[in-house]
Amino acid sequence: MTNFVIEAVSREDQGKGASRRLRAQRQIPGVVYGGAEDKNPVSIAVSANELYKQLDDQSFFSSILTLKLNGAEQKVIIRDLQRHPSKPVVLHADFQRVTDDSKIRITVPLQFVNFEKSAASKAAAKFAVEKNTAEILCRADQLPEGLSVDLTNAEAGQVLHLSDISLPEGVEIVALRRGEDHDQGIGYVYAPRGAKAGK
User: Fold this and answer.
1) In 3-state terms, what secondary structure has residue 187?
2) Is residue 42 a contact partner of residue 10, using CB atoms and an 8 Å limit?
3) Other residues' Cβ atoms within 10 Å of the Cβ of residue 190
4) Are 154 and 123 in contact (CB under 8 A)?
5) Which of these, 59, 110, 136, 156, has the minimum number of CB atoms within 10 Å of its CB?
6) CB neighbours (10 Å) of residue 26?
7) 39 band by pLDDT with thresholds 50, 70 and 90
């Protein structure tokens, strides 16, 4: 798993004017919160250039990050990014402190594997992805890089759902905690136009 490190400094200035001044200096205002009850939210500033580099890696959003705040390290996850509505600019970043035994809700990628080994694939069927992420609940020290969906046994016409994902120990899918009605489709096997799967 990639080790993402974010350098940050605490800031005292608040308000829109202060945030504009920070962004003019290629700094992004943010806040870090959560963790132990005696830990208060802290307003921070991070380097825009450094953050943008890390945002290019999709696993950034589903990883435990190391936040170096005024030289002291703490583990965090990215909780929210406020983006400009029409420009590729991050306006504000929210980070949540975590410990190894923290229960966290976080969105991770779905990795569809082994379709080429399936009988459906060998019969010229294709697989269409409907959903490429899932929100999970787990301890921070059990966070997977992603969830693997094994398509070895995929059949023609089959629709796969969240409940078809094999989960690592200690990991739950948030939607399934709400009941069977929330068992969303994540992909399906289909025959391309002009082809007949199974022929």
Assistant:
1) strand
2) yes
3) 17
4) no
5) 59
6) 12
7) confident
